Amino acid sequence: MAVLEADPPATGDRRRLARRATLALLVLLLLTAAASLTVGAAEVSLSHALADLLAGRDLDLRARVVLWDIRLPRLLTGILVGAALAVSGAVLQGLFRNPLADPGLVGVSAGAGLGAITAIVLGGLLPPALAATAGPWLVPVAAFGGGWGAVLLLYAMATRGGHTSVATLLLGGIALGALAGAVSGVLVYMADDDQLRDLTFWGMGSLAGASWTKLLATAPLMALALLAAPSLARGLNALALGEAAAAHMGLPVERLKRHAILTVACAVGAAVAVSGGIGFVGLVVPHLLRLATGPDHRGLLVNAALLGATLLLLADGISRILIAPAELPIGIVTAVMGAPVFLAILLRRRLPEV
Amino acid sequence: MLQIRDLQVNLGRRAVLRGITLTARPGRLTAICGPNGSGKTTLLRAACGDLAYRGQIRLQGAEVATTPGPQRAACRAVLAQNTALAFPFTVAEVVRLGQSFGPAAGGPDLTARALARVGLQGYGPRLYPELSGGEQQRVQLARVLTQVWDPVAHGVPRWLFLDEPVSSLDIAHQLQIMQIARDYADAGGGVVAVMHDLNLTAMFADKIALLAQGQLLAMGPPASVLRDDLLGRAYGCNLRVSTPPAQGPYLLPQSARTPAR
Ligand SMILES: Nc1ncnc2c1ncn2[C@@H]1O[C@H](COP(=O)(O)OP(=O)(O)O)[C@@H](O)[C@H]1O
Ligand SMILES: [Mg+2]
To answer: At what angle do helices A72-96 and A253-275 cross, to 10 degrees?
Structure first.
């Protein structure tokens, strides 16, 4: 991975560095996206398809199905999910003032996971008519509802008299995550073999289920969160000095916390609903970027979106070719890619003096 | 003007401040002194609008509790007793935060001037976590200064609220920082500083508010507050003003000259 430049320039302002990184990451994302369209179980020539398109000819049926119906929605889903997870990680780390925070921590992922597992295991108990209409929507909707339920519950628990305690939010998220995990365990215990297979795939995350319908349902939420995130940047920078100092500078701290949490709930709820539990992207991406271009959230959030999207596409590509024609769950790939990077960062970093 | 009338602040179930009435004027350096736990920080935080209170706190005529945060931030900047930085920003990035939240936002960059002011020329590119405690404290002061850079704007004074601004500094930098506060007041701004060092206080303050156990014991110019009986009561030990200790060396900060800035 390209670590751009660790030393700040002479003025101590790393914004130009961050902007150059944005350009580089944008190019990288476009290249990865193009590559990702060409990779997969079916052989399709992207250049032929492009030539056809440019010449105004219709695509042949095979190319249309593979590129348009399968790979393109999958590509866009991957971009949005990767960006959403990475940006959520960066926002949460800023909010908790802790570089180790992760979307998994605030209970969104756990709540969404519980929702999805409930839908998979108990979905069969629904009246057949309802089950037929809900159909493929049941799991994503349950995941999204579970994620939001967890966040709202946490927020209510952590807020007293107009003040939200970030520490309660963090610890409550861990507790709620453990609780959701336990209930999920019971449900997994009740599951039959088919459901177990679904559960495993869902739990480790996958973009295999991506489709235009699912994308259209979840993309607006992720896009909304991604567009809203940059407006948090200035506030998160101030929050790095602590809540008191940020308030002294005139920052509406409580509003910032509320907006940050809603943004993350939108982004992660939708991401988990469409792709299951994909770990490490939210943790590693902001971390790498902070090392390369500094912690200023104005550059960090934009760059996190780009790098998160790129990394998820890479991971998805790997998951598709490694054991082709079968597919590995993408969460396994992100964990295998992310965990060593994360460990390397931890070990390389000088321990803070006490 | 900062007018505090009949102030009571409760923290938890304790009344930490009771019946405080005092006035601090722009153009003056007002020191808040008193033993540990006497409520100095609490008084300053209440004046910042951090705490719920009973009574009255008016800054430039506006009741602090009901003034919106951005409006307060345009009028006064606060240096807290300690500030922890969550991420490794550079010194320049930290200082710029102050300006970007103050009335000088969008104007010419004050970073270099503010850093020079606190004696940290050329420190801009350094990483904040890699500085010493005293250097970090001065970076924070530079940030605070850029938030309310002009002591007076359109005839309205601005304010610096400083909580123990020199507690982790060596003697030269103590003098330098106190001189910055002094200059700010001389230029027409208001300065309220929580002080531990009574010698420095005597040297730089126009007025001293002496706190003990949450109450105001005395308020007035140094000569009238730094008296044996008052200090003895406040600090609970026998103190003699301007009497050198019977044995051993001692240092008077008055004997030093402020280094050229
Ligand atoms: N959050 C709190 N809850 C209860 N008591 C507090 C709290 N914060 C401070 N105190 C108490 O209030 C008193 C004044 O504290 P403070 O204003 O920080 O003193 P200092 O004069 O040393 O700055 C102390 O006795 C302290 O123990
Ligand atoms: Mg104190």
So the answer is: 150
- Residue written as tokens 């100092």? A245
Q: Which secondary structure element, helix H or strand E, spans residue B57, and what is its range?
A: strand B54-59
* CB nearest B77 (choices: A11, A98, A248): A248
Confirm if A67 and A39 have CB atoms less than 8 A apart. Answer: no
Structural domains in chain B plus CATH codes: 2-257 (3.40.50.300)
CB atoms near residue A259 (< 10 Å): 18
- Where along chain A do its domains lie? 61-348
Mean pLDDT, chain B, as a whole number? 92
- What pLDDT, in 10s, does the model give residues B224-260? 999 889 998 999 888 777 655 556 666 766 667 666 5
The residue among B83, B87, B94 with the most chain A CBs within 10 A of its CB, best to mutate, is: B87
**Residue A188: what pLDDT?**
85
Closest ligand to the CA of B42: 1
Q: Of B90, B59, B192, nearest to A290 (Cα)?
A: B90
- For atom 16 of ligand 1, the residue with the nearest CA is B39
Which residue's alpha carbon is nearest to atom 5 within ligand 1?
B11
Fold of A61-348: ABC transporter involved in vitamin B12 uptake, BtuC (1.10.3470)
What is the DSSP secondary-structure string of B58-125? Answer: EETTEEGGGS-HHHHHHHEEEE-S----SS--BHHHHHHHHHHHSTTTTSS--HHHHHHHTT-TT-TT
A100 versus B209: the higher-pLDDT residue is: B209
| pTM for this entry | 0.89
